[in-house]
Structures are given as structure tokens and as C-alpha cells.
Specification:
Blueprint lengths: L1 E6 L5 E6 L7 H13 L4 H20 L11 H10 L22 H20 L7 H5 E5 L16 E5 L15 H10 L3 H11 L5 H5 L6 E2 L15 E4 L16 E4 L2 H18 L22 H14 L7
Antiparallel strand pairs: 1-2, 3-4, 5-6, 6-7
């Protein structure tokens, strides 16, 4: 079992699931296509869901269960997720000894269960799995136990679903780099482009997919941008959800604006001079492009943004990684 990206003729990409004989698992593929194109979810979302479905189908195969009805044993699946070594197809029997460290944490297991529930619900709706599977996945409740303020204005009883299988996640502090660590990462950068990436992620608050998807036309750095047809005051960045060839994707369905300060503006000025020295007036409309490796001028991928930030975190001795 494995997950694999698929590029359709329109240029869009989604992830699907292959069985042991490298054949597409039709039910999983239909669910992931609906997720990507029917619900307009991000490519990375289908990748995450495909990975969870692969684990579920692998468990069903190893324990000789029928995936359509294995929801009755999801508790055992959660135990398998907790202790089964990840990515090791040769391990078919899980025998953790005393003091063993669990393989997957609670948050990861809950994400896998979310993908499995979505997959099985889609199978029930499409008549590929029996309807009683829904009762094994969710508890059905109504609004009679809610206070009057939470019931809404509509008349009649309203129902809600609650997932039966879910682990309690421990509360953890947000693992954010401190200002000192960001300064250390900034000092470890070897180019103006890398310094701009650090500031876009650490100071402007962009996600790596959003940063890699920025176009030069998204950067409005004047105090008054009305000449560009933009009524937003001050220096700012427009974050727009697009289908990009470098697989960069903003998870926010709505376009939004982020203000940037003088540090980002100065870093962008230095980067544009560095870019012009290498590419001249050429290159794509993407803001962040390759300047030091082939193909020159091609857009930087989100994975490259993370790799650069990880390297700078190591060079700057930062304890956190983006």
C-alpha cells in the first residue's frame, strides 16, 4: 500500500492510493478526487488523507479484516497505530515490550482517524459499505441538552454527530521560534532571498505554502497603492489561493491582506537587486525563484522553503523548526 500524487491534464494535482500490486484503490481514489475537486481542499490535505487511508488499508490487510466493515474494531486500529513502526512493510506483528516508546502521538492518530472516517462515510454514501457503519463511527445527539442560547432560531430538533473514537491530546505550548532565534536564523542566511524567506515566515506570519505561492504583483509596498488599483493603506502583501505549478497552496479559501513592516520592505529591496544580478529582467512572476541552482528563475517549492528554514535553524542554533 502506498500513496502517490496524480497530475490531471488541467494541471491540478491530488494524491491517490495504490494497492500492493500498484493498482489504484477505486473507492479511495473516488473519495480523494471528491475531496480535492468537489470540496476544493488543498493538495497537501489529500496527501494527508491518502496517508491515513494507506495505514487503515494496511492494517486491514495485515489483520485479515474487510475494510468496509472493520470500523467495529477501530479501537484495535488505534492501538496498532500507536505501536506499529511507521513505513516498515516487513513488520506484520506488533510486539511492544515494557518501556517501549509509542510510534505515533495522539495528535497524529487523531488525524489518521479523521481521514478514515471521511473515507468510510464516503463509502457508505456511495453504497460501497453498509449503512450501519455510520453508527460505529459517530454518536448521534440532539440539541435538547444544550442551553437555549446555543440552540439557534430554527424550529424543530437539530441533530449533531460526535466521533466515537478519538484520543485526548495533551495540551502543548505553541512551538514558535523566539525573537532571538529568528535573529540567529537571519544571521545564518547566505543570501538576500533566504533572509526574505525568514522574515516572511517569522515576521509576517506566512505559511511556507503561502510564501512560495506569492507573485511579485502581490507585493504592495507603497504607502498609497491606489495607483495599483488597491485601496489598502500602507505596505502589505496579498495572499491569494491559486493553482501553482510549484505545488504552493494557501489553505485559506478567502484572499486576505497582511501588513508588512520596514524590515520586510528592505529585505525585499535587497532580494530584488540580487535577483536582477542573476536573472536580469527575466524569470517568472513568482516572487521567490531559484537563483543558485537549475533551472534558474523557476519558482521555489514549499519544500525548498522548509529546507532552507531548517538549515538556517541548524546554523543559527535555533531549537525550533518551521
Amino acid at each position: 500500500m502506498q500513496a502517490l500524487p496524480v497530475r490531471v491534464p488541467s494541471g491540478s494535482t491530488y494524491w491517490t492510493v495504490l494497492d500492493d500490486e500498484l493498482r489504484v484503490v477505486a473507492e479511495a481514489d473516488a473519495f480523494l478526487r471528491e475531496l480535492r475537486f468537489g470540496r476544493s481542499r488543498a493538495v497537501e490535505t489529500t496527501k494527508s488523507y491518502a496517508g491515513g487511508i494507506v495505514l487503515y488499508l494496511r492494517w486491514c490487510r495485515d489483520t485479515r479484516r474487510e475494510w468496509r466493515t472493520a470500523a467495529r474494531d477501530l479501537g484495535l486500529f488505534m492501538l496498532w497505530l500507536k505501536w506499529n513502526p511507521g513505513g516498515d512493510e516487513s513488520v506484520r506483528v506488533v510486539v511492544p515490550g515494557p518501556g517501549s516508546k509509542q510510534v505515533r502521538r495522539e495528535s497524529r492518530i487523531n488525524k489518521v482517524l479523521t481521514s478514515v472516517r471521511g473515507f468510510l462515510v464516503h463509502a457508505v454514501i456511495s453504497k460501497k459499505a453498509p449503512a450501519w457503519v455510520m453508527e460505529l463511527l459517530y454518536e448521534l445527539g440532539d440539541d435538547r441538552d444544550l442551553p437555549a442560547q446555543a440552540r439557534g432560531e430554527s424550529e424543530g430538533m437539530r441533530y449533531r454527530l460526535r466521533a466515537r473514537h478519538r484520543l485526548q491530546e495533551p495540551e502543548t505550548a505553541v512551538d514558535r521560534a523566539s525573537d532571538q532565534e529568528i535573529v540567529a536564523m537571519f544571521g545564518a542566511c547566505r543570501s538576500a532571498r533566504d533572509r526574505l524567506i525568514v522574515l516572511l515566515l517569522g515576521r509576517a506570519g506566512l505559511r511556507r505554502g503561502q510564501a512560495a505561492g506569492l507573485r511579485r504583483s502581490d507585493m504592495h509596498l507603497l504607502m498609497d497603492s491606489r495607483a495599483l488599483g488597491c485601496a489598502v493603506e500602507g505596505a502589505h502583501v496579498h495572499v491569494v489561493r491559486r493553482e501553482n505549478p510549484n505545488r504552493a497552496y494557501s489553505k485559506s479559501r478567502k484572499a486576505f491582506v497582511l501588513p508588512v513592516d520596514f524590515l520586510v520592505v528592505q529585505a525585499l529591496d535587497l532580494y530584488m537587486m540580487e535577483r536582477h544580478d542573476v536573472l536580469g529582467s527575466g524569470g517568472s512572476d513568482f516572487l521567490l525563484v531559484n537563483l543558485f541552482r537549475q533551472p534558474l528563475g523557476s519558482p521555489v517549492t514549499p519544500e525548498a522553503c522548509r529546507s532552507e528554514a531548517d538549515r538556517q535553524a541548524c546554523d543559527g542554533a535555533a531549537s525550533t523548526h518551521p
